Amino acid sequence: MSGRAGRRGLDKKGSTILMFDEKMEKDVAKAMLKGHSDNLLSSFYINYHMLLNSQRLEDIDLEYILARSLLQFQQDAQLPALKAQLAEKQKLVSVSFNQEDDLETLHLLKEKL
């Protein structure tokens, strides 16, 4: 396992030294190094005790902590896709039919599909 190789925001490159306990096949090592990592999902949440502690301690700003959390970063990254989905659904909702015959024809066509 390896951590961050370099200082965030300062180093463009970093070095990592890997040490193996056992001999490993070349293909297995290559797959480990060049393969994809598992998704990292935040499990951060504000609970009752955190709220109480923030009230007790003056220096804790929960909004500041939340704004810089991995959870907020992940939610911000999802925002453009969610906005696009919302726009698509709003287009579907805005479709209107002026005549009942058109609606009935649409229904019959959908049944045939």
TrEMBL record:
Keyword Glycoprotein: no
Keyword annotations of the record: ATP-binding, Helicase, Hydrolase, Nucleotide-binding
Cellular component terms per the entry's GO annotation: nucleus
Domain of life: Eukaryota
Gene3D superfamilies per UniProt: P-loop containing nucleotide triphosphate hydrolases (3.40.50.300)
Record keyword Transmembrane present: no
Exosome RNA helicase MTR4-like stalk domain mapped to chain residues: 63-113
Coiled-coil stretches noted in the UniProt entry, renumbered to this chain: none
One GO process term, biological-process aspect: maturation of 5.8S rRNA
Single GO term (MF): helicase activity
UniProt protein name: ATP-dependent RNA helicase mtr4
